[in-house]
Design brief:
Radius of gyration: 17 Å
Number of domains: 2
Order of helices and strands: EEEHHEEE
Strand content: 15-25%
Oligomer: single chain
Bound molecules: zinc ion
Largest sheet: 4 strands, antiparallel
Strand order of the largest sheet: 3-4-5-6
């Protein structure tokens, strides 16, 4: 994914753990994802219908398919939501808008540090 922002900056999606990228799960899907993980992953693993590797794959697939990707331009703060059929752009209301709302931690912190 490469987005040419209206401000002239380029937003690239070329690796993992990007501070300008997020995964948005709509609230209308939130509990459906939990219920699908319960039924298709946890119950299936507990009952021996799937093995651990299959459980990992299923859980990740269930979460991923409900999420829409979003990106923020670090230069101007524009937020882009990939609705799969089209890219929607949201423009900050003021120049004071935080340009890293998708960042969860500093680059030196390990993954999961924000939840501790
Ligand atoms: Zn921009």
């Amino acid at each position: 994914m490469r987005i040419d922002c209206s401000c002239g900056a380029t937003i690239k999606d070329v690796t993992d753990n990007l501070p300008h990228k997020g995964h948005m799960i709509p609230d209308q899907e939130w509990f459906a994802v939990f219920e699908a993980i319960d039924a298709q992953v946890i119950d299936a693993l507990y009952e021996g219908r799937i093995d651990r590797d299959r459980a990992y794959t299923l859980a990740r697939r269930l979460i991923s398919r409900s999420a829409e990707l979003m990106y923020q331009c670090r230069d101007c703060g524009r937020l882009y939501v990939d609705r799969r059929e089209r890219l929607e752009c949201f423009i900050p209301e003021t120049d004071q808008t935080h340009c890293e709302v998708l960042r969860s931690r500093s680059d030196g912190d390990s993954p999961g540090a924000a939840t501790k």
